[in-house]
Amino acid sequence: MTRKKGPKIVVIGGGTGLPVILKELHQRNAEITAIVTVADDGGSSGIIRDYVNVVPPGDIRNVMVALSDIAPEFKDIFQYRFRSQDKFLAGHAIGNLIIAALSEMRGGIDPAIRELSEMLQVEGHVYPASAQPLVLHAKFTDGTLLAGEAEITAAHKDIKEVWVGNNPWSENKKPHAVPEALQAIEEADEIILGPGSLFTSILPNLMIEDIGRAVLKAKAEIVYICNIMTQKGETINFTDAEHVRTLNRHLGQNFVDTVLVNTEIVPESYMDFNRYDEVSKQVVHDFKGLREQGARVISDNFLLLRDGGAFHDGQKVVDELMNVCSNPIKKRD
């Protein structure tokens, strides 16, 4: 279910950070399009993609719930994850199974998402970055190579670059984007990257050649929401400028227009590093390095402390995103 709204905002990424922003954007006067990574091969999503040959459904599920207008109790059912004692279904979310079933019933992920969007009363557009599940590849600074998002992250080595390829059973030689996603990028007033894992949630989308090309050609303001904490196996010791430098390097030019960075200190004593074991330490600021890359820097207290972890405060971030949309530095026709 979609309604014509105000500014056209495209959000690109995956993981747990994306729904936080989408849920708040959903409350605003915006026409939202979410473009979601399909390179996840861990957990329930990875198991389902291997058995059913469907794009990993987990990130799509979370995004659809964030944009859904159905009653909370129905969202809870859709999001319910079976307990480990259930063995056969252990770890699977009901929504993942429904997405996989509809993909099989309707002959692909696109008709499945359209039908499920109607059922869930989704306000906005949700597109997988590609209709095919993709494999993430990485080259590390020591020259070694690995394939598979879960293995890349688990290696806990410094990543030099990533790229994506089709899974072994795909008939296509090169990954291609969903056409509707490319159209949304072309028509957008604002394109938001993140928050999320730099190498495994954001870059896999941009490494699909036609998505990367569309972003570079976009007339929209391109905003990167920098992570609050560094991530083991991905961005250990990265400054905010190094996050942006990595994005720019992968697309071959400085394309990020505006960067949102949190300046509030995360109390180390608050963090539950056992629960958030992939988190390392707070991202260090390098405003000079950001500006040298041509980026406008918007710094503020965007921090939300919750459940022993450091998260973005969706309301504060989206307040700023809407301000940026009203006052872009990138001129549109």
Would you give an account of this structure?
The structure is a single chain. The chain is α/β, with parallel strands linked by helices. It has one domain (8-40, 126-326): Rossmann fold (3-Layer(aba) Sandwich). Helix content is 37%, strand content 20%. The protein contains 13 helices and 14 strands. The chain has helices spanning 17-25, 43-52, 58-66, 72-79, 94-106, 109-119, 149-154, 179-187, 198-206, 209-217, 240-251, 287-292, 314-326, and strands spanning 8-13, 31-36, 125-128, 134-140, 145-147, 159-166, 190-193, 221-225, 229-231, 258-262, 279-282, 296-300, 303-306, 309-312. The strands form 4 sheets. A 7-stranded parallel β-sheet has the order 3-2-1-7-8-10-12, sandwiched between helices. It has a 3-stranded antiparallel β-sheet with strand order 5-4-6. It has a two-stranded antiparallel ribbon with strand order 9-11. Helix 1 (17-25) links the parallel strand 1 and strand 2 (31-36). Helix 2 runs parallel beside helix 5, helix 5 (94-106) crosses helix 6 and helix 8 (179-187) packs parallel to helix 10. The radius of gyration is 19 Å and the shape is globular. 46% of the residues are buried. One of its GO terms (cellular component) is cytoplasm. One of its GO terms (molecular function) is LPPG:FO 2-phospho-L-lactate transferase activity.
